[in-house]
Amino acid sequence: TAIIEFREASKTFGTGTETFTALDRVSLSVERGEIFGIIGYSGAGKSTLVRLINALERVSSGAVVIDGLDISTLPEKRLRAVRRDIGMVFQQFNLFRSRTVFGNIAYPLKVAGWPKDRITARVTELLAFVGLTEKAWAYPEQLSGGQKQRVGIARALATNPAILLADESTSALDPETTADVLRLLKRVNQELGVTIVVITHEMEVVRSIADRVAVLDGGRVVEVGTVFDVFSDP
Ligand code: ADP
Ligand code: ADP
Q1: 51, 126, 131, 232: which sits with the fewest CB atoms below 10 Å from its CB?
Q2: Ligand 1 center–CA 156 separation, angstroms
Q3: Close Cβ partners of 98 (under 8 Å, ≥ 6 residues apart)
Q4: Distance between CA 148 and CA 122 in Å, rounded?
């Protein structure tokens, strides 16, 4: 069953004659438990699509349905619960410089009001999962790029979201580190059952990790299918 569904979703910016269509009647569905890749050049509409999924923007027409809930018409108050079920991983990691690895991973749990003992238990478990137990007290500047992104992934998973959005999450990393982070994302998918949407301009990333892929171009989905179908020559 679909966990994310775009139904003829369009997003237009501006008013009057000064309008620009960033997404044009996009329809796609991400199945629960899969790794879904979204690939496209700069300006294709990838960020807009991400912002529609995590409810930072609303569609101009059509609908976005998350876990059976049409979020295009949902009141702002109820969007918070939807956002809580979606973990975000970023290109530039977005870690707090002034917080330790532990503190960064604990942050969303503090915000959610978890008691201290449960936070400690959860962060300890996540540190082990991403292989950074010995770095608990390090600060981000003491970490390699790959380690920073593992912290980013642990933080995104802290509240146990059903969906992980990885937005250009390997674009700042070298190929070897990229492979490492992709292996971790694969484990997140297989061992934790998290549905992952990988947004990237890097074909190789999608090819190596995704089950299915949608190709965005000029705000439209121009192709969607299995990685094999989309990337094999006609
Ligand atoms: P990508 O992430 O694939 O680079 P974006 O979703 O950022 O693409 O942008 C798609 C198009 O929509 C671009 O031409 C961009 O300039 C335009 N766009 C995105 N956000 C806005 C906005 N807030 N106002 C006006 N135009 C926007
Ligand atoms: P901040 O409160 O500014 O985020 P830190 O990032 O240093 O500060 O740590 C966050 C909180 O987690 C602190 O209250 C600290 O006592 C606790 N903490 C940090 N690391 C550990 C750890 N390895 N085991 C148990 N508690 C920890």
Answers
A1: 232
A2: 24
A3: 139
A4: 18
Give the chain's length: 234
pLDDT digits (tens, 9 = 90+) for 142-183: 999 999 999 999 999 999 999 999 999 999 999 999 999 999
Model confidence, pTM:
0.89
Across-strand partners of 87? 164
Q: How far is the CA of 82 from the centre of ligand 2 (A)?
A: 28
Please answer whether residues 4 and 58 qualify as being in contact, where contact means their C-beta atoms are separated by less than 8 angstroms: no
Measured distance CA(182)–CA(178) in Å, rounded = 6
* Region of residue 65 (left: phi > 0; alpha: psi -120 to 50; beta: else): beta
Query: Ligand 1: which atom is nearest the Cα of residue 216?
Result: 3
Our measurement of the distance from residue 186's CA atom to the centroid of its chain's CA atoms, rounded to an integer in Å, reads 13
